[in-house]
Amino acid sequence: MFTQTWRKYLPVIQILLKRSAQSEQLLQMNHTDFERAAAGRKIRYSFNNLELVNARMNNQSKQPPFAKEFAAFLLEDENMKRFLMDKHVEFSMTNAFSLSIKQHLQVAVQEVDEAITATDNADAPE
Question: What's this model's pTM, rounded to 2 decimal places?
Fold first, then answer.
């Protein structure tokens, strides 16, 4: 339903995703774009904590259809999907059509395990 609307904002979302590695990014969108696409239907446009981890939706069951459609749209784009691999990104959208993009640092579990093992081995009495 909102594919055309999201397509309009995709280039800006891609730029903000790259910048989100430094700090949280906000995109203020035009409410009339969404209201036109909804064709008069009452839809809840807000969502919180939509997490994409390694280009997969993490908390899918808790999200409204609007958020699921947004995530599906992002993952349909091959460039976006490649960018989101090996990343943990969180999206939230307010009723005022402000999209928040946060990128969380993702430490490889294997690296952490190796560091813990190395520390344990160094501390172990002989």
Answer: 0.76
Torsion of CA 67, 71, 76, 80, to 10 degrees: 140
Any idea how long the chain is? Answer: 126
Strands lying side by side in the sheet with 25-28: 25-28, 98-104, 88-93, 47-53, 56-57
Contacts of 4 (CB under 8 A, 6+ apart): 37
Tokens of 56: 């997969």
3-state secondary structure of 35: helix
The predicted-structure confidence for 103-123, as pLDDT tens digits, reads as follows 998 655 445 555 566 665 555
φ, ψ of residue 82 to 5 degrees: the values are: -60, -40
DSSP one-letter string for 51-110: EEETTEESSGGGS-HHHHHHHHHHHHSHHHHHHHTT-EEEEEE-TT-EEEEEEE----HH
What token pair was written down for 61?
């069951």
Residue with tokens 């909102």: 2
- Tens of pLDDT along 84-106? 999 999 999 999 999 999 999 86
